[in-house]
Write a structure and sequence with these properties.
The protein starts with 12 loop residues before the first helix and ends in a 5-residue tail after the last helix. The strands form two sheets. The protein has a four-stranded mixed beta sheet with strand order 6-5-4-7. Strands 1-2-3 form a three-stranded antiparallel beta sheet, with helices on one face. A hairpin with a 5-residue loop joins strand 4 and strand 5 (about 195-205). It is elongated. Helix 8 (about 230-240) crosses helix 10 (about 265-275). About 40% of the residues lie in helices and about 15% in strands. The protein has about 300 residues and is an alpha+beta fold. The protein is built from eleven helices and seven strands. It binds zinc ion. Zinc ion (ZN) binds near residues 56 and 82. Zinc ion binds near residues 53, 56, 58 and 79.
Length: about 300
Amino acid sequence: MESLFAEEGTDTGQIDGKIKNKWRWAWLDEAGDDGKLFRTWCKKMTLSGVCMCVICHKKIPYGGNGKKVLARHSADAKHKAAVRALKHTSSLPGAVTVTAEAPISMADRVCNQKVRICAFIAEHDLLFTLAQPLVKLVTAMAEDRSALSRLSMSNTHASYLSTHGIGAQFKSELSSKLQGHMFSLTVDESTTTNMDRVVNVLVRYFDDDRQKVLTQHFASSKVNIADANTLTHTLTDIMQSNGLDWDQTVSLLMDNCNVMRGKKSGVETQIRLQNPSLLDISGATVHMVSNVAKALCSPFQG
Ligand SMILES: [Zn+2]
């Protein structure tokens, strides 16, 4: 982009051409009646015979009367008012008075990055809680600029990579960690936006590498007939496909409905046949508290 202002000290003879009074850089070091140097507000433009007051944003032609116009402008009532106003206002980080050549301040640059993050969140309808994680992500990614410059990713590629790359790797690592170890399972059902019923299994185990107990997602499986037999088969399938036995399960946490915890043929009863030493840790405490609260409040209704 061609600059709006001429750089101080450069030859302005060509810009000014054949006008009577040509620009002189020495004018900037003279002062007006107010004692302020002209350079505090005046800039030579890359136009013939014109400079600009960057405070009033006014073009001042000097071709006819030379530097006299600068003194005249500095004495102008409007200019004085603008200078006074400037003295009593502090600029916001984004407010740049001289647009063309001013180096952009760090505050402006940081502000620009923030606006980009906010705009991205708004455009893609994301959560505001993602703002700081997004900053961390871009910071980490920017460390390898040359790889970043070669990066592109379609949505099908991202989906494939998540399912068959990261997901598969994660699953195989988890199942190899569980081999020969004891663990607890937490099972619950949910309904997807497609109205499919899905059984979700979390596993809680002691991780030797990290030396602490971790809870991780173990598997999710679609079960549209959610009876006790189907659920038991699904869970057994999940265990077998990971090369695990029910013997390794310390406890099984699930909600209190009959399908799950029915005494005769509930999922827990069926699994207990294969692992009689399964701990009885009762059902989901949240549901129990909710039921107790409902029972407590019922006499007061109406
Ligand atoms: Zn002015």
